[in-house]
Specification:
single chain; alpha+beta; eight-stranded mixed β-sheet; globular
């Protein structure tokens, strides 16, 4: 899943202070200091948890695989330290109220199998972008759908966002089908939007609005 906000090339966000930031701090349970009250989520089979350095090797195992990063907008990781820096960027984005990234853990086994989260988060504009990736061993078992479903519920129901966007490569048909399953509408194409592995790639833009989400026949997997 192409994501351009939280960690493309392990970018860090600058801190901004505004009334919307204060409100987001309240809703995300972020205290005034650097400590965080991270909002963990839960589904029937999954726990969506805060990602820490203890998950570095598991995250590296996922993002070092070309079949995963092929559609993720980043080069495959080459060492565990890359994963640690990535986790630091997740925390930085959360502290600075620009994004939230959850680790996806299977309840029965305790296995860390991927991440899901919000990029380009703006409470003032009531919008964000959703991104996700799952270990290939857990593809086609509806774990991604289950995690995305819960993040959408939280985003529209608790954060009161009005717009959720998603970016994906044109030939990422699995991701495109998942987004359409949840009512996302295709808005258009961004030509040569990302340069990866010595080649430019177009990206498709999808979006889902809060009224559309609330009218879906079901929001469960």
């Amino acid at each position: 899943m192409l994501r351009k906000g939280v960690y493309q090339k392990v970018l860090f966000f600058k801190t901004g202070i505004s009334s919307s930031g204060i409100e987001l701090s309240r809703q995300l349970n972020i205290r005034g200091d650097s400590s965080m009250g991270f909002r963990e989520l839960e589904t029937k089979r999954l726990q969506l948890i805060e990602i820490g350095h203890q998950h570095s090797e598991s995250l590296f195992d996922i993002l070092s695989k070309d079949e995963v990063t092929k559609y993720d907008g980043i080069e495959s990781l080459t060492q565990v330290e890359d994963a640690r820096r990535l986790i630091d960027s997740f925390k930085s984005a959360y502290i600075n109220k620009r994004g939230i990234r959850w680790g996806v853990v299977v309840k029965d086994s305790g296995k860390f199998i991927g991440t899901v989260g919000l990029n380009q988060l703006s409470l003032a504009n009531k919008r964000a972008e959703i991104g996700y990736e799952i270990h290939p061993e857990y593809w086609r078992k509806h774990f991604t759908s289950e995690a995305v479903n819960e993040v959408l519920r939280y985003s529209f129901g608790e954060l009161k966002l009005n717009r959720m966007a998603a970016l994906t490569f044109k030939d990422n048909f699995a991701s495109r089908n998942l987004l359409k399953k949840f009512g996302f509408k295709e808005e258009g194409s961004l030509r040569s939007y990302i340069f990866l592995r010595k080649q430019s790639h177009d990206a498709l833009v999808f979006s889902l609005l809060s009224p559309e989400y609330s009218q879906l026949p079901q929001q469960s997997v």
